[in-house]
Amino acid sequence: MKLPSLAAALLFSVAAASAQSMAPVEPIASLDVARYLGTWYQVALYPNRFQSQCVSETTATYRERGDGAIEVRNRCRKATGDFDEAIGYAVPTGTLTEGTLRPAQLEVSFLPSWLRWAQGLGHWGWGAYWVIQLAPDYRYAVVSEASRKYLWVLSRTPALTDADEAAIRARLQQQGYDLAQLQMHPQHKTPRSQ
């Protein structure tokens, strides 16, 4: 085996061992759904294709529908200055008892309502939505899923405090997330809080 091939093989085996030893992503144990409802500002994320048009002012508003599901209204400003909006539907996949979801797992779909019947067919068009960090007073939340491919940091205010950002980043690092991929997301004319 040539030296570059050996080095590549060693790097591959170290990376594979590291990935295998990484603890699986876990949602938080419980979520008070009523406290989670309302508007959240997206303050950071792993960039993704379905939000590529969003340049600032991204919010997510959650509203109880009365049937056990939650309406999800995502809104953002595009480079043109116009707003883009998508309305989706979230259903608990954890156990929902007296307003508490255990663990904090949902599935979300932004398919048109006439296509949502597909939920029972292998969950085509549905994505995992796991709350993996949550401030005790619900001032910020971090959302992801099992593969760590998607990540969003949400806040009740347009900016995190420095202390909250540091705490979130430290916990994400412990949870095995690549902080180099995390991008801060601007809110319009909002100074950074202290």
Describe this structure in words.
This protein has one domain (25-184): Calycin beta-barrel core domain (Lipocalin), CATH 2.40.128. The model is unreliable at 1-20 and 189-194 (pLDDT under 50). The strands form two sheets. An eight-stranded antiparallel β-barrel has the order 2-3-4-5-8-9-10-11. Strands 1-7-6 form a three-stranded antiparallel sheet. The chain is globular, with a radius of gyration of 19 Å. With 194 residues, it is of the alpha+beta class. The protein is 19% helix and 37% strand.
What's the helix and strand layout?
Elements (H helix, E strand, L loop, with lengths): L2 H19 L9 E2 H4 L1 E8 L8 E11 L5 E9 L4 E10 L2 E3 L2 E3 L2 E5 L17 E8 L5 E5 L6 E5 L6 H13 L8 E2 L10
Antiparallel strand pairs: 1-7, 2-3, 2-11, 2-12, 3-4, 4-5, 5-8, 6-7, 8-9, 9-10, 10-11
Number of discrete helical segments = 3
Fourth-tier CATH superfamily name: Calycin beta-barrel core domain
Examine the coordinates and then state which fold CATH places here, giving the name of the CATH topology: Lipocalin
What's the rounded overall pLDDT mean? Answer: 85
Strands side by side in the biggest sheet: 2-3-4-5-8-9-10-11
Shape: globular
Indicate the CATH class.
Answer: Mainly Beta
What's the end-to-end separation, in Å? 55 Å
Q: How is the biggest beta sheet arranged? A: 8 strands, antiparallel, barrel
Binned strand content: 35-45%
Order of helices and strands: HEHEEEEEEEEEEHE
Question: Which stretches of 5+ consecutive residues score pLDDT under 50?
Answer: 1-20, 189-194
SSE-based structural type? alpha+beta
